């Protein structure tokens, strides 16, 4: 049995989310976000209804980081960017259960996201 580490985040919307990381995979070829790496989280805001949220890290975002920083992102840094985007989604989306369950890490925002936690 897999033990999941449940984390809690209080969003600016007033919701308190609990979530855990399920896993990652290459986005399906038929997915409009493809090519990308899809990071999947299970999320609840009421402890009753669990729903999946996917965060897509596109190759363009990784390339933007590499071109401005002169090095490639490590896997932990990729996960950090994705998790920060998830929390940003919690803050910006009024109701994650009914909208906002597919988020993207864009090339234009990856440096800002990682800069908030001091990764250069």
* End-to-end distance: 37 Å
Approximately what portion of the residues adopt beta-strand conformation? 25-35%
Number of strands: 5
Count of helical segments?
A: 3
Structural class by SSE content: alpha+beta
What's the alpha carbon Rg, rounded to whole Å? Answer: 14 Å
Question: Strands across the major sheet, in which order?
Answer: 1-2-3-4-5
Largest sheet: 5 strands, mixed
Q: What kind of oligomer do you see? A: single chain
Order of helices and strands: EEEEHHEH
The averaged pLDDT comes out at: 91
Give the overall shape, derived from the CA principal axes: globular
Low-confidence stretches: none
Helix amount, in percent?
A: 25-40%
Number of domains: 1
Task: Spell out the blueprint of helices and strands.
Layout: E1 7-10, E2 16-26, E3 37-44, E4 51-57, H1 59-69, H2 75-92, E5 102-105, H3 107-115
Parallel strand pairs: 4-5
Antiparallel strand pairs: 1-2, 2-3, 3-4
Helix pairs in contact: 1-3
Keywords:
120 residues; alpha+beta; 5-stranded mixed sheet; 32% helix
Structure description:
The protein has a 5-stranded mixed beta sheet with strand order 1-2-3-4-5. It has helices spanning 59-69, 75-92, 107-115; strands spanning 7-10, 16-26, 37-44, 51-57, 102-105. The mean pLDDT is 91. It has one domain (7-115). α1 (59-69) packs across α3 (107-115). With 120 residues, it is of the alpha+beta class.
């Amino acid at each position: 049995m897999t033990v999941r580490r449940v984390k809690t985040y209080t969003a600016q919307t007033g919701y308190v989310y609990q979530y855990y990381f399920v896993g990652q995979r290459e986005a399906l070829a038929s997915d409009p976000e493809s090519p990308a790496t899809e990071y999947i989280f299970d999320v609840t805001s009421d402890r009753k209804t669990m729903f999946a949220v996917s965060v897509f890290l596109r190759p363009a975002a990784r390339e933007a980081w590499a071109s401005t920083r002169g090095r490639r992102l490590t896997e932990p840094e990729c996960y950090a960017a994705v998790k920060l985007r998830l929390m940003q989604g919690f803050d910006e989306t009024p109701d994650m259960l009914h909208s906002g369950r597919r988020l993207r890490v864009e090339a234009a925002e990856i440096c800002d996201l990682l800069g908030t936690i001091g990764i250069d």
